[in-house]
Amino acid sequence: MGDTVRGQVSTLQVQQALLPFLGSAFLQEAEEVCARAAQLLAGFRPERDGLAALANQLDTLLFMAVREATQGRMALVMDNGQRYRLRVSDFALMADELLYLLFERLERLPWHQTLIREYSMRSGSLAALRALYVHYQDMQSPEENQTLRRVITTCHEPWRWRHWLDLPQAPEQG
After folding, report:
1. Nearest residue to 22 (alpha-carbon basis) of 10, 30, 32
2. Closest alpha carbon to 77 in 29, 31, 22, 30
3. For residue 16, how many C-alpha atoms fall within 13 Å in the half-sphere facing its CB?
4. Which among 112, 134, 149, 171 could disulfide-bond with 106, CB atoms 3.0 to 4.6 Å apart, if both were Cys?
5. Whether residue 114 sits in one domain with residue 125
6. 168 against 146, higher pLDDT
7. Contact at 8 Å (CB) between 146 and 45?
8. Under a CB-based contact definition with an 8 Å cutoff, are residues 132 and 117 in contact?
9. Is residue 4 over pLDDT 70?
10. How far apart (Å, rounded) are the C-alpha atoms in residues 13 and 138?
């Protein structure tokens, strides 16, 4: 079937994706964890691996790293100086953000679109919805794209999509 993943995810890209969740102080000490996450993403092969299993591996990797680094307290100091206690659900969000790094590297093929669509329906993954909306827009009907947009904006918190969703601009007052 050939290699259908373009390029590899770097440790730096993983760190950038995780920065809002874990803060730079933790990430500076966790380069090995970020490298391992990048390896997991690089090792994914759509024809043999499952996205849910990969998400679970990433979730577990991150959870265990934070647990170990904080001696179970699960609290990190963010870049704004505030201490934030991570919840179990935060790790699923982080894993989802990392999956997007993979989705944007998959060749734009109909079977990748199907793979991502099925995963989005089973998991509610914003990363999958984002990939469909951003990278497969021309392979979907306008109605499908409108539905994706509606699901994204009604089922997910704005802080997760505001920076990439092309919201219509308010008319200028003149």
Report:
1. 30
2. 22
3. 7
4. 112
5. yes
6. 146
7. no
8. yes
9. no
10. 26
Q: Does some domain include residue 21?
A: yes
Tokens representing 80 are 């704004």
The SS3 call for residue 19 is helix
pTM value is: 0.88
Q: Can you tell me the distance from the alpha carbon of 61 to that of 36, in angstroms, rounded to the nearest whole number?
A: 8
CB atoms within 10 A of CB 97: 20
Average pLDDT in the 87-103 region? Answer: 97
Based on the domain organization, do 29 and 80 belong to the same domain? yes
Do 42 and 8 form a contact (C-beta atoms < 8 A)? yes
16 and 100 assigned to the same domain: yes
Which secondary-structure segment (H or E) carries 59? helix 51-69
3-state helix, strand, coil in the chain (%, to 5): 65, 5, 30
* Domains: count for the chain: 2
Residue 58 is part of which domain span? Answer: 8-105
Measured from the Cβ of residue 110, the count of other Cβ atoms closer than 10 Å reads 9
Whether 173 shows a pLDDT value over 60: the answer reads no
